[in-house]
Specification:
The complex is a heterodimer of chains A (120) and B (361). Chain A has 120 residues and is mainly α. Chain A is 54% helix and 5% strand. Chain A contains four helices and two strands, in the order H-H-H-E-E-H. Chain A has a two-stranded antiparallel sheet. In chain A, helix 1 crosses helix 2. Chain B has 361 residues and is mostly helical. Helices cover 71% and strands 0% of the residues of chain B. The longest helix of chain B has 37 residues. Classes of the chains: A mainly alpha (120), B mainly alpha (361). At the A-B interface, helix 2, helix 3 and helix 4 of A face helix 1, helix 2, helix 4 and helix 5 of B.
């Protein structure tokens, strides 16, 4: 299962922004998979617990299929009907870039709120 | 995981993280639903019908498992049902090549080509129905408004171009079929090819048989008014009689001979067979990038010819014929046909709009 990160380096087109309407659910799915592989039901429950959002089944699988097509996640073999998915190297890199950009936006917004509105 | 280590995102850390993820795979799959009753599983499987067969083959089992667990927790949810309907519809649009294919990019050019062929066939049927009525009218009497003659000339030229392009495309696809047979890959193409051959044979000989079924469909030998031979117009009329006669004159159907009524039931089935067979063939046929490029090139020229036909039809619609001249009267069926023409052109344009050369490689 060991892969070379350099050979799987993400292209510019592999970012979450290219996923269209699935980019929102995609960031939640990738964040959920960041600590290990999960199948659909486990993903739904995990995302609900950390984000307070319950992804509907259609939305979840639409995003999963796009993420898989972009090489950001991959399906694992399974003995039963539920198929687990795990993050790929490309997916981890894309998620990291996305979250760093989000954190920058959050930091700027929070500091301005604290300065101008005394809100923290 | 990467952030928690306080490290910069480098290839090395990513690889380490991935290895760790793979190692913990079995431990981290959490969230087990309660035991799900069989009737709920059946409901979940029923909702899979929203999705196309290729999608079901790839995701069907796991999606049904998730959906069954969701149904067990929330038996009724309009939001979930709407979500499934919408995502199923989007998956179907992708399946026919109208949006990018999510999980099988290789299928996309084939699906687009199949959709294109369906649009072209629907266009040809609606166009032939409209054009043949006008051509038969002009073969009997000279229109008083020059616009009608101009319209017929435009429509005839456009249909001729479309027919030639369809013939060229059929020859190229035929070549790909022969190549597939030589590779030993022709067995799966047998069924769609048989459907096309049967439908086309029925349509051709049936239309030949019924082309002079009504007095005057072949035109008057001594009063030939247009460039279109009367026999060709009559053939077009007979092939599309189910559109004009069945839809336009439903009250008059009781007066129709039984043979014509049977033909009006058989001919749409034959046309449907040709269209379905062509779509199925194109979806299964592996064509070379050169062949796909050639066919898409034909499609682009065909799109221009389709627009020319619509321009001709519009010219006719805005050409008021003085007095009551049933041959050139614009009816509801013609407006409906025009709407079908516009819809097929729009759909065909969407099908080929996003095809990039790299997709054909």
């Amino acid at each position: 299962m060991k892969r070379s990160a350099s050979s799987a380096a993400p292209a510019a087109s592999d970012g979450l922004d290219t996923l269209g309407r699935s980019s929102g659910p995609a960031s939640l799915i990738l964040s959920s998979l960041a600590d290990g592989a999960k199948h659909g039901y486990a993903l739904t429950k995990d995302i609900e617990s950390f984000a307070g959002v319950r992804l509907a089944p259609g939305t979840l699988y639409e995003a999963l299929s796009r993420l898989e097509a972009h090489g950001l996640i991959e399906a694992l073999d399974s003995q039963d009907r539920r198929r687990p998915y795990q993050l790929t190297v490309t997916g981890a890199t894309a998620l990291s870039s996305y979250l760093q950009a989000q954190r920058q936006v959050a930091d700027v917004g929070l500091s301005r709120l604290a300065r101008s509105w005394a809100l923290t | 995981m990467i952030e928690a280590r306080g490290e910069t995102t480098t290839e090395a850390t990513i690889e380490t993280a991935t290895e760790a993820t793979v190692e913990t795979t079995t431990e981290t799959i959490t969230g087990e639903p309660e035991a799900i009753p069989a009737d709920i599983k059946a409901r979940a499987c029923g909702r899979l019908r929203w999705y196309p067969a290729a999608w079901r083959a790839r995701y069907g089992d796991e999606f049904a498992e998730l959906l069954a667990a969701d149904l067990a927790e929330r038996p009724r949810s309009l939001r979930r049902d709407a979500d499934i309907a919408c995502s199923g519809l989007r998956a179907r649009l992708a399946d026919v090549g109208l949006t990018p294919h999510a999980f099988d990019r290789g299928a996309s050019p084939r699906a687009r080509l199949a959709t294109l062929a369906c649009c072209a066939a629907a266009f040809m049927l609606a166009a032939a129905a409209m054009w043949s009525q006008l051509a038969i009218g002009v073969s009997w009497t000279h229109p008083r408004h020059a616009g009608v003659t101009q319209a017929l000339d435009l429509m005839s030229a456009a249909l001729l171009v479309c027919s030639v392009l369809a013939g060229l495309a059929a020859i190229r696809v035929g070549g790909s079929v022969i190549a597939a047979i030589r590779r030993g890959d022709g067995l799966r193409l047998l069924r769609p090819a048989a459907l096309i051959a049967t439908g086309a044979t029925v349509l051709f000989f049936g239309a030949k048989h019924f082309e002079n079924a009504w007095p005057g469909t072949g035109g008057h030998l001594l009063v030939h008014q247009s460039l279109v031979p009367g026999g060709v117009a009559a053939f077009g009329w007979a092939a599309t009689m189910w559109i004009t006669s069945y839809v336009m004159h439903p009250a008059a159907l009781v007066a129709f001979p039984a043979g014509q009524l049977a033909w009006m039931a058989l001919s749409p089935a034959a046309a449907g067979g040709v269209i379905a067979g062509t779509a199925s063939l194109l979806r299964q046929l592996d064509q070379s990038p050169g062949a796909l490029r050639f066919e898409l090139g034909l499609a682009r020229v065909g799109g221009a010819a389709m627009l020319l036909f619509i321009a001709g039809a519009l010219r006719w619609l805005v050409s008021p014929e003085p007095g009551v001249m049933p041959a050139f009267h614009v009816g509801v069926i013609d407006l409906a046909a025009l709407a079908v023409l516009a819809l097929t052109v729009a759909t065909a344009s969407q099908a080929i709009r996003r095809v990039q050369p790299c997709q054909l490689a």
